[in-house]
Amino acid sequence: MSTTHRNAPEPPPVGGILWSIAGDIRSVLALPAATALQVAHPGVGAGVDQHSAFRTDPWGRGERSLRSVQLWMYGGRDDAAEEGRRLRKVHETIRGTDAHGRPYRALDPALYAWVHATAFPAYLQAQRHLGRRPFTGAEERQLYAELLRVGRVLGIEDRDMPPTVEEFWPYYRRVLREELEATAVVRELVTVDRSLPPPDRGPWPVRLALRAAWPVLVSPFARLRAFLTVGLMPPDAREAIGLPWTAARERRLRRFGLAVRVVVPLLPERWRYLPVAREARRAARHKGPSPAAQRAGDG
């Protein structure tokens, strides 16, 4: 075993909670809400506003982000660590001034930790609406412990993250109360009239079909994206940022979630899981996974 491998932080375990949920296609539905929660922090929002390609290359950026997340979770010790180092290097030069004239730096420990910390409430909210059932208290603690391991993969120091679930919630509520706002990027993410180019990823016949149909599809797609961005955000975060939500929308979200909960577990694995996750799960089965790993796809 190489010195680099021995020193690399351990990614989440095979058969753990993240092994089950992070590569499931339902994670794609929850991603816009998690992103909006991240960029509601003025420093993070300014970095994305000033340095990201989310306007000029939204599909490419989304694909790269998803692949990066999948490598942290499913890439194994070396690939996860390499992706963590690559991500930090990419963010080294991201700095500037936010909308309030305050300097920010992407690798500032508080900002970098917040971006990662949002995964916990985002996963809980997605599970409530899109999963088979909400997590139990023990599962929430396990999920948080696994996310702490991902934080180490990303180079986040233990001192910059609350060490337990019980300590996470006061930290989270303080950030909601004192720091979050409807930044320019948040407003763009929830608008329904933002210009969006047709998808340019996937098999070419699919791309051609989408390009032809995009004038008809773009408006309902934008409405669905905005609906899920706000609806799958934790209610306390939604309120803190000032995003409107109604009882009628909540009922629509519950109906949508019911359909997802029924349909997705029936899909074959090749459709249900994203590529990196799918390959990792196949490799784990060939190595003889633990009973927990065999249960990981139950949903």
Give a quick rundown of the structure:
The protein is an all-alpha fold and 299 residues long. Helices cover 66% and strands 2% of the residues. It is built from 17 helices and two strands.
Question: How would you describe what is shown here?
Answer:
- The protein has 299 residues and is mainly α.
- The protein has 17 helices and two strands.
- Strands 1-2 form a two-stranded antiparallel ribbon.
- A hairpin with a 5-residue loop joins strand 1 and strand 2.
- Helix 3 runs antiparallel to helix 11 and helix 5 packs parallel to helix 16.
- The longest helix has 28 residues.
- It is globular, with a radius of gyration of 19 Å.
Write the layout of secondary structure elements.
Blueprint: H1 3-7, H2 17-21, H3 26-39, H4 42-51, H5 58-74, H6 76-91, E1 95-97, E2 103-105, H7 109-117, H8 119-130, H9 137-153, H10 165-178, H11 184-190, H12 204-231, H13 235-241, H14 247-263, H15 269-272, H16 275-286, H17 291-294
Antiparallel strand pairs: 1-2
Helix pairs in contact: 3-8, 3-11, 3-12, 5-6, 5-16
